[in-house]
Every structure is written in structure tokens, then in C-alpha cells.
Prior knowledge:
Layout: E1 8-15, H1 21-29, E2 48-52, H2 55-58, E3 67-72, H3 83-97, E4 102-111, H4 119-132, E5 140-145, H5 153-166, H6 169-173, E6 177-181, H7 187-199, H8 208-215, H9 224-244, H10 249-268, H11 273-280
Parallel strand pairs: 1-3, 1-4, 4-5, 5-6
Antiparallel strand pairs: 2-3
Helix pairs in contact: 1-7, 4-9, 9-10
Amino acid sequence: MTSNQSRTLVILVMGSTGAGKSTFINAVSGKTNATVGHDMQSCTVHIQEVQITDPEITGIVAIPNPSLLIIDTPGFDDTKKDDVVILTRIAKWLKKSHGIHSLVGVIYLHDISLDRFTGTAKRNLDMFQKLCGKKAFKNVAIGMTKGSRVNDSGALQRRTESLKRTQWNHMIAEGVTVFSIPEKDSREDSRKVVKHLLSNYSQSTVLQIQDELIKKKLLVPNTEAGLELSATIKRLIDAHKQYTQFSTASNLEEAKREIERLSKQLKELKIPLSKRIMRFFGF
Length: 283
């Protein structure tokens, strides 16, 4: 075992709210470890660590007595916490775990039953890519969930091919592997994704945001993920401002509240001058 390897291995699970992250983790573990939400209501507010002890899974890695943690993360469209809070929590966990645990890879879940690639899906994917960085894509797997909800098998196939050709094409070119995970009886298919990442493991994966926070000593707002979130919030504010020009009186107050909420998030992403000066001088 090399110096950058730990007996505690980690696989991160990410994706939009409702994509089935908690269901996936429970299928892998064979237990109800992660709380499962319904529809688009999130149950994962905090980052949850689920330990996998089954030797059928952990035995794949050539490390004596390895321990595997699968990490359940909230989506960036979480119904209970703002995106800035979610990004900060994920970033802090990744920074803290670096050097303690060995990151095997990341699983990104996408609800294939959605007939359109929505703005929410795009925001989550954009943030995911900025967190990981291209260098880590070879240790990333995409899991398509809830395909059984699409009654037309031809439509499901076309939807899958469209995503591979348009949204995921550059990721696939960099080494990302795509899997289909059924909604029912998904234990073996879910484990197949985990085993795939474990079988390719040789040393700890370093995500882009970990490199930015630890090696480059950037603050979260200055990371690629932080800058992406800031740009996204600005676009949303502009869109809501445009909307208010044509809103009825009943919708106007709601739009104003949303602008206020987004503006607060944007303010939280701005680094105070004192922090910028301290970071410049290495404090």
C-alpha cells in the first residue's frame, strides 16, 4: 500500500434531487442506511456516510482489510438548502477527507425518465463537472435511473443516445462509463457500478476542487465550481428581473422574493477584502 492509499476507500454519489441517490446506496448496501425522498423533495440535507462491509465488494481491491464508504450528497437543487450551502458542505468534506481517505471515484445519477434535459439537470451536471475536473473523469460513472418509468422502449433508447451524444459526449470521451440502473431489483446493477470503479482503482483520485482548495489554496468562491455557481445565480437573477416586467400582481411578490433569495446567495459567494489579502500573503 503506497503512502497516498488508505484502507478506507470512498465513492461519492452525486446528482439532482430525485435522481435516486439514497435508493442506489441502499441497494448497494442491502440495508436502509440512507433516507429515501419522494418526488422532488430532498431527504439528504447533510452529507451521509454509509459503510459497506460486504467482502464481495471490498474484496475487489488489492488492499488488506479495506473499508468502503459510499457518500450520499444533496443535489444543487435541494429543496431545503441553498446551492451555496450545498457547495460549501461538499467542498469542506472533500478537503477534510483528502489524505485521510482514498477517493476511488464518483457516481453521477441521472433520472432518465425526465423527457427533457431541464435547466435543473444542466445546472447539476455543470456543477458536477466543475467539481470533478477532466482529469478525474476516468474515475467517474454515470448511472441512468428510473428507466422503467418510460413506457416506450424506443423513446428510452433515443433519449439515452441523445444524452450520450449531446450532454455527456465530452465526458465519455475522457473516460466516463455510462450504466443503466433499474428502479426495482436494482441490487446487482447498482453493485455493478461500484465494482466497476473499484476494479479500476490503483491510487486515490484527486478532484479538481480538492486540488484548488488544498494545493492552490483557493477559497470556495474562487474555485471553478464556485465561479460556475456565481455565474448561474447571476443568470437566474437576470431571468427573474425580466419576468417581473411582465408579471401579474399575484406573481410579482413571489418573483421579488426569489430575486432577494438569489441575491443573498450571490453575496455569500463574494470574498471579503480582508480574506483576499490574508490568502495573498499565505495566511
